[in-house]
Amino acid sequence: MIHIKHREDNNLDQQNPISMKDLDKAMNEFNLCDRTAEDLGLIRRYLERLMLTIERSRIREYMMLTDSKRRLFLINFVAGLGKGFGQAIGFSFLAGVVFYLLGSWIDLPVIGEYIAKLLNIVDQYRK
Q1: Nearest CA among 30, 8, 7 for reference residue 17
Q2: Nearest Cα residue to 76 out of 65, 87, 63, 60
Q3: Residue pair 33/2 in contact by the 8 Å Cβ criterion
Q4: What is the largest CA-CA distance in the chain?
Q5: How far apart are CA 70 and CA 78, in angstroms?
Q6: How confident is the model at residue 2 (pLDDT cuts 50, 70, 90)?
Q7: pTM, rounded to two decimals
Q8: Rounded CA separation 119/112 (Å)
């Protein structure tokens, strides 16, 4: 598409705003050639795809969420509690599995002594 610059484009401060009636009138009087009509159809298809992509990305919901600071804080706080609780349970399970495996390796010649000492320290801490 070709954009023709007019002298008025350089003086934006001096331009008068166009009313919607004048704009509609200018658009209706504008004669489109076949090539321009094809270009406008292509632009329209791209705009429709862009609108569909924006709607799928749920930007409106995100903007509404960030608009309310209290709601955003509450959602992030609850998410943080959930993550912390999940990490605590996961770490406990992982530590239990590690100590179980270490307990079964006590019979190893060199490493067994260190593992036995570590398990004794853990047992003393429990009491």
Answers
A1: 8
A2: 65
A3: no
A4: 96
A5: 12
A6: very low
A7: 0.40
A8: 10
* Structure token digits, residue 83: 């993550």
Q: Which residue has the tokens 């398990």?
A: 119
Q: What is the dihedral of CA 84, 89, 90, 96, to 10 degrees?
A: 140
Question: How far is residue 46's CA from residue 51's CA, in Å, rounded to a whole number?
Answer: 9
Q: What are the boundaries of each domain within the chain? A: 7-126
Distance CA 75, CA 61 (A): 14
Encode pLDDT of 22-36 as tens digits: 766 666 666 556 677
The structure tokens 């298809």 sit at: 45
Q: What angle do CA 53, 54, 59 make, to 5 degrees?
A: 140
Model pLDDT for residues 64-113, shown as the tens digit of each residue: 777 888 888 999 999 999 999 999 999 999 988 988 887 776 666 777 77
